[in-house]
Amino acid sequence: MTSTPQTTAYIYQQIVDRNPGEPEFHQALHEVLETLAPVLDKHPRYREEKILERLCEPERQIIFRVPWVDDQGQIQINRGYRVGFNSALGPYKGGLRFHPSVTLGTMKFLAFEQTFKNALTGLPIGSGKGGADFDPKGKSDNEIMRFCQSFMTELYRHIGEITDVPAGDIGVGSREIGYLFGQYKRITNRYESGVLTGKSPNWGGTLIRKKATGYGAVFFAEEMLAANNNSLTDKTCVVSGSGNVAIYAMEKLQASGAKVIACSDSNGVLFDKNGIDVDAVIQVKEVERQRIKAYLEHHPEAEYFENGNIWDIACDVAFPCATQNELKDKDAQTLIDNGCIAVCEGANMPCTEKAVALFHQHKVAFGPGKAANAGGVAASALEMQHNATHSSSYDYSEEHLHEIMINIHRNCCQTAEEFDQPGNYVVGANIAGFRRVADAMLAFGVI
Ligand code: NAP
């Protein structure tokens, strides 16, 4: 029996009906399923063995209470999550997000995307995601520590270096990973370095991990431009967000000869016509833990727009590096009207489906997050390998990360061409990721 786009539409509708009230999960499913009909046509076994239906159902979803005591002595209660989506290629792997917007649906969308992303790296990692509806903003260091300890007091029984290996994401950086690891070690009586990645380099982390997502997105953008006989040199760029991914994307862009003129946070947009001073952003965001507006204290000549829209700033290349659905169709149209030639997603699903359709329609090179931001999880997988050797001196180089991103780009291009959609990185990433996971699932039988 051959597949038609209608059958993937039917599968999509069934999954939506089984997972009501999870719009971001539906969106991520829609974007992927829409591209998979040709691969199901080509390989009927995927359809006969219901690989798609199985792949869209998370293997496990854990929800738990996280009680903690704030600095005023008041008891606070948050909700924690860990979704293990697919372990066909290795232990569940994916970050933890602490943000008030976190729901089970957010976790499922992120873990679903992670399935394809992790497969694309070519490394032995399954997919997962977790977090809590906890808002770290304005919390003291002690409150963050108590929250992390309570969160891990439940999470520890579900994770392990060959079971599930969380890392950071929005609101979870090396400070939080430190508190989480400390509590895991204390409860389990095991110095199990490989249970978390994104660790500090002096206790089991790798130097490249912190920079890997941002650097990787820039390497991917370089490849996209090179495929069109172009380069980042002298290009004007804007990068949304000012967190881990945004900071290191900006650092690598400046090093590659591009000029970054704007970045942001959820309060506003920073514009510096002289080029953003990344060291000042690091000082403001990572050292002082302030809002991006505080950059003006270092560079009074820069401009700050409260509640501004970063996509209104004209640029050659745009890097959405903050959060999901931050770049909508009207923003895409503004970027196109202003002459933007490429968009590369550092964040997960930052562009809406309508925005992506506009980029494709107007021949703007578009790098989807599941390919373009895979450098972070690839570096995490290398950190796991490093931890498994119990070595203190081994580290991975930027060249290694660069090579991985070049391979992901090549794989996306070749797959898109194989399916008659040259230059469509969405098709390339979805099909290449899907095939690797699906083939492993076929080999394992019905489990
Ligand atoms: P982060 O360090 O916490 O920084 C997030 C940045 O995005 C902050 O500047 C934040 O501003 C902004 N932001 C968050 N929610 C927002 C919202 N609703 N509206 C506007 N701005 C918002 O997080 P990150 O690690 O850089 O992650 C950024 C994105 O990259 C996420 O989509 C994440 O899933 C993805 N990603 C991260 C990694 C990684 O290695 N960290 C790997 C792959 C993908 P505020 O401070 O004002 O909230």
UniProtKB/TrEMBL annotation:
SUPFAM superfamilies: Aminoacid dehydrogenase-like, N-terminal domain (SSF53223), NAD(P)-binding Rossmann-fold domains (SSF51735). It catalyses: L-glutamate + NADP(+) + H2O = 2-oxoglutarate + NH4(+) + NADPH + H(+). It holds the Pfam family ELFV_dehydrog. InterPro entries: Aminoacid_DH-like_N_sf, Glu/Leu/Phe/Val/Trp_DH, Glu/Leu/Phe/Val/Trp_DH_C, Glu/Leu/Phe/Val/Trp_DH_dimer, Glu_DH, Glu_Leu_Phe_Val_DH, NAD(P)-bd_dom_sf, NAD_bind_Glu_DH. Substrate binds at K93, Q114, K117, G168, S380. Keywords: NAD, Nucleotide-binding, Oxidoreductase. GO terms for cellular component: cytosol. GO terms for biological process: glutamate biosynthetic process. NAD(+) binds at T213, N244. It comes from the Bacteria. The active site is at K129. The record marks D169 as: Important for catalysis. One of its GO terms (molecular function) is glutamate dehydrogenase (NADP+) activity. Residues 206-445 form the Glutamate/phenylalanine/leucine/valine/L-tryptophan dehydrogenase C-terminal domain. PANTHER family: NADP-SPECIFIC GLUTAMATE DEHYDROGENASE 1-RELATED. Homohexamer. Belongs to the Glu/Leu/Phe/Val dehydrogenases family. Catalyzes the reversible oxidative deamination of glutamate to alpha-ketoglutarate and ammonia. This is Glutamate dehydrogenase. It comes from Methylophaga lonarensis MPL. The lineage of its organism: Bacteria, Pseudomonadati, Pseudomonadota, Gammaproteobacteria, Thiotrichales.
